[in-house]
Structures
1.
Amino acid sequence: MQGTWTFGQKLALGLTAKALITVVLGAAAVYALLSVTAAKDRVITNNMRLLTEAYRLEGTASERMGTVRAYLLTGDETQREAIRGLRREFFDRLGQVRELAGTPEERVALDQINRDTTVQFDAGDSVADMRQSADRLPEMGKAFQEKVIPLNKILRAHLADFVGLEQKNLDDAKKEASRAATTATVIIVVLAALSVTLAVVVAVVLSRVLRRQIGSAVQHIQSSSSELQAAANQQTTGAREQVAAMAEISTTIKELMATARQIAESAQGVARIADTTSAAARNGDETVSRAHGEVSAIRKQVDTVVEHMLDLGKKSQQIGGILEIIDELAEQTNILSINATIEAAGAGEAGKRFSVVADEIRKLADRVGGSTKEIRGLIDQIRAAVNAAVMATESGSKAVDAGTRQFAEVTTGFRRISELLRATAEAAKEIELSTKQQSSAVEQANVAIANVAQTSREAEAGSSQVLQTVAELTALSGDLGRLIQPEGRA
Amino acid sequence: MTSENTSGFERHLAELRRAFDETFALPPPQRPQAQIEFVLVVAGGERYAIRMSELAGLEVNRKIVPLPGGPRGLLGLSAVQGQLIPVFELAALLGAGARGGAPRWLALHRSQELIGLAFDEFQGSRRLPPDAIHALEPAPEQTPLSRHAIRVDSGLVHVLDLPLIVSAVALNRKEKSEQ
């Protein structure tokens, strides 16, 4: 709680406590003064009045007793009237005294006085009535001596007791008032002493607390001033280095701007080349498509050639079959001719001409047989050539198929190339746009860096100002320390 | 097939046609004297020549009915020219091993009776002058059934002596019957 309170709050707390004690002290003094005043007023207004009224009752009773005596002596009716008036005055005053009486003793005494007075006054009035007839004058004297005077003594004794009681009450009230005044004086003195003690304690506590807090704050200020001085020195050095770095960064950014412009120009060149290449790719795609059509036609022609070749192979096989028949016929002819020759030779001279014909037929058959062999060889060559051609054509067909697939792949590749070139052109344009944006951003960065450099210079100047302020702060903290502690203890 | 082969084939056909036509157009030529005709056959993988004068005929693809037992080289009986004749395998008679499969050619020889000699392949006939026939010196390894040879297609071909062969067959048959 103490650590969170400010110096002003603590000072206000101390002063407030002192003010409260002062208020309490003042209130106690006022209370004591009022109590003393009330006691005195009660003594003056009540007890003194009761004593005075007691004396007056005593006087009124004495005056009425004297007036009765005077009437008895003189018989003057005015005296009789005065007696009646004194009777009323006595009882009126007695009523007033009863109103002022506060204690039971007073009431008891007043009741006794009231009864005694009534008896004594009634006895006096009866004696006074005797005065009106001369016959009763001796009785009157005797009654006066035997009744009224004793009753009067009793009344006077009770009145004297009441006076003594009131005198006693007055003395008690005086003593009570004096005791109250003494008590108030003691209370005021005690409260004054407490106030002085508390003021001293508050002053001591505040002095210690303020010394401790302000001393700690002064030490912190001195430590912080040292740190601030070091930081300001470091900040000054950093600001100088930052200014130098900003200069290097500015130079680098200028180079970066030049490079960005070159990139933008290169991107433009790339976009143009990509457009040109895209057009070439489209031409290539069209060329490949045409070539693909031509290859497809070639494939159909190759299929036709293969079909014709296979047909040729079948025909050559059929020729071979026919040739076998021819060969067989030639063989049969040869056999027949040989047999004819043999038979002709067996026929002697008559068979010579037949032998000649058979001989020629055999020659023809031989030549046919040889020719069929040659034809068979040729047919075999044809069939081999056809097979080779078919195989070659099938290979060609496969190659054409492969070429067709490759043409399809090439077409796809050209289309892919075209798409990639289009994407490349768009990317190059985006690069160009981005590079321009980058150049703009770099220019903005350059301006910002110039501003940063200016700020750094201002920071350097500010750091110098901070150093000066730190020196002043150090001096102020020393002054503050000297304010709370002597020079030797600081 | 090249164009050269095609032109050669056409030329050969034209020559054949012309020769065939000339056969009917020219007068019958005089048979040169002292020409000996040979028939070229293949038996047991070897090429042989047979004098046409020793032949009674040639047959092909004749059905041969095998006979159980019999002398060496006897294939069976066949019907030729309206009679049953014995057929011997020429290669077996010449001492060469059989090459598998029945020979389809028959060379007929008539001595006392008609006999068939089966061989594998018929390669046509040749007409040669007598001086083209070379006599062979008898040697132990030489076959006794051939005493002459002719040169055919730059190769030497033995000339079979069918009477000797038939005599040997007859001798074998006689020995077989005596056994």
2.
Amino acid sequence: MLSKNFVEYAILLLFKDRNDHLFSFLIFSFIVFILSSVLFISDSLQYDLIQSIKSQPEIVVENTRAGRAYQMHEGYVYDASKITGVSSVEGVVEGYYYFAQKRLWFHIIGDARLAKNEMLIGQGVQKAMAELYYKDEFHFLTEERLIKVKINKIAPKGTNILSNDAIFLNPNTARAVLGMEMDEYSKLYVSVPNPNEVGNVALKIVEIYPTAKATTQADAIGAVRHLYYYKGGIFMILYVVSLVSFFILLKNQIGLVYGEKKKEIAILRSLGFCIKDIIALKFIQNTVVSLSAYLLGVALSYIYVFMFNAPYLRTIFLGNELENSISLTPVVDVNLLFLIFLFGVIPFLAFVILPAWKIAISDMSEAVKS
Amino acid sequence: MKFLAMLAASFSLIYCVMAVHMVQFPTQKKAEEIQALSLHVKDAKASLSFPTNAYQRFVYAQ
């Protein structure tokens, strides 16, 4: 059992050698900060997107031609509705409008709640339009004519993850803007009440229309997880490389510092400290350093991501063409933090204690003489 | 020991502030807003806006 005086002595030594420990403390905090920030952002975005997918119909059907999205007509709706197990099929209008003045793409989505001459826009779209003085009304330029639509409502900030680049229009207005015919659809929403039949129905749709793509809810959730999968693949390699580089650097630095402190360790040994005590001394010092660095890194990343909404880093995930003032929902994965602790703090201690042990077992008489 | 106590106290304080922030964040309100939007626009996509350099040559205004 370690005595109180022993712990106090270890802390006193830590203060005396604070410059030696500062480097490892700062670098380790920074690595934990970056790692936690990236994972916090990806978890938060995944959480919000999966939340929205839960309201999605069981199957979303899109048509393709030459590998590109292609419109569907009433025949597709009729055929899909005749498949056993399907309760309803709804055709929707969706597409992209190029706003050339600002070099931006706006996501046009048909919304039957809206009147023909009004639209609901996302906050990013509002800012982009306001810069060119479109404040109450916007002019869509199509091949045939200019379509004036009143800016009626702005989507709430909480939905920015979905609505920032979106313009919600009446389906008929959306068709006119996107150059589609009145009986054409971009997508079909297929409702299947029995969850066990979803896979079969999706397969039947693809059998009837081989160029169509049927995406189930499970596929959509999988796509979101894949989009923000920062816990594996190339990212895992990057994390491992940065951590291993840090530990090698740490081992060299600590080895050098302890080499200079050989005389100090020799004096402690001659005073009656055994190898176990020397290791315990270094263990206490470095536990304080690594644990503080870990806690500080996690706390700073929480503040940076969830209180300040991750400026700069956010654009890596969302893009920076259109300003997105998203508020990230605080989602903290405790398992993940434990994993960072396990692969950060434990190797840190191992890499620091090994050089201390090596010096403690060496011949002390030589060290005292020098 | 005094230093360790102070360190533990400051970290407890920071983590308490984080916990309070997490509890006070309007997660429910945000979820309701997203759900309200998703009820009408059922297949909403993530609002991403990455640079599209390929189209810049056609642009006539800065």
